[in-house]
Design brief:
about 70% helix, mainly alpha
Length: about 300
């Protein structure tokens, strides 16, 4: 089994590694491109991990992204985006439909996280199209998943009157994601690339979308299902789902339960060096500001200081 603290941190570049070492690209023609992609993404934004979508309060950014981080994150996004573009070009040149789908799906997630969910929707649509051409239900499912995350952010940013008109689109995308994932055979050609995508992650995405759409009660139930089916090796994803639970409790006005979930996520954060997880955790704590003087929040703050997660 992979190291639980790092397994999920391989998601954005694992697909490129498999292409390079699996021999699907001729090394002379494309190997150097993939090597450059791997190095470029790592240098451009080590904090831009793949995995569960964590849509936030400011234009699709994760809930924990404080304003002063925005400029840095956009620089990282632009750098990583360039290398994703290089990977897409190499995949097209090699006529590799599965790789096109995977690159675009991860690129969609990156765009949504960095505050451009409309671009996230566009990349997700491309991922679905190439996944369909590749005959991969798993990649189609993953494309629908990241598309739902992106569209949920678009809906939230829209004018109040427009929200009702397309409120159901993210959930429609999630229903398609569920159907495709459920029907995927063991021999699905996208299994090796989207090795991390399973029922637990699908349910985690559904949770975040429900929170974005203002439905904390359904989000609470879905997050509980996600935790029950999640692979514990993906520590960051489990922690993020607990933070989604905290968000649901906060929206429902239950700070004690929210504090309990943040505490559990914080304990997991000590086993994972994901900057994104730390920022989302910080944002989850900020959601509890109306209850700053409560004993539960005071106890949480003490725990966060003990773990070195806050000053």
């Amino acid at each position: 089994m992979e190291d639980p603290a790092s397994a999920e941190d391989l998601v954005p570049d694992r697909c490129f590694e498999q292409v390079l070492h699996g021999g699907r690209f001729h090394v002379g023609a494309f190997g150097s491109v993939i090597v450059a992609v791997l190095a470029g993404i790592e240098n451009a934004g080590k904090s831009l991990e793949g995995g569960v979508g964590d849509l936030g309060e400011d234009g699709g950014l994760p809930a924990g992204l404080v304003p002063q981080d925005l400029q840095v994150e956009r620089v990282e996004h632009d750098g990583a985006g360039y290398y994703y573009g290089q990977a897409r070009a190499a995949a097209h040149e090699a006529d590799d439909d599965t790789m096109c789908a995977m690159v675009l799906a991860n690129w969609s997630q990156l765009a949504t996280w960095a505050g451009d969910p409309r671009l996230g929707v566009e990349h997700a649509l491309g991922a679905v199209a190439w996944g369909q051409r590749a005959g991969s239900r798993i990649l189609v499912s993953y494309g629908c998943d990241v598309g739902a995350r992106a569209y949920a952010a678009v809906v939230r940013r829209s004018a109040r009157g427009e929200r009702r008109a397309d409120h159901g689109q993210p959930m429609h995308s999630l229903e398609q994601a569920y159907h495709e994932l459920d029907q995927a055979p063991d021999s699905d050609p996208g299994t090796g690339l989207a090795y991390f995508y399973d029922q637990g992650q699908y349910l985690a995405t559904r949770t975040w979308c429900l929170l974005e759409l203002g439905d904390p009660h359904r989000a609470l139930a879905t997050a509980s299902q996600s935790l029950a089916s999640a692979d514990p090796a993906f520590v960051r994803n489990v922690a993020l789902t607990r933070l989604a639970l905290a968000g649901a409790y906060a929206q429902m006005g239950e700070p004690g339960n929210a504090c309990e979930q943040i505490t559990q996520a914080a304990d997991l954060a000590g086993r994972n060096n994901s900057p994104r997880l730390i920022r989302v955790l910080t944002g989850s704590r900020q959601q509890l500001s109306p209850w700053d003087t409560s004993p539960d929040v005071a106890s949480l703050d003490e725990r966060l200081r003990t773990l070195g997660l806050t000053a």
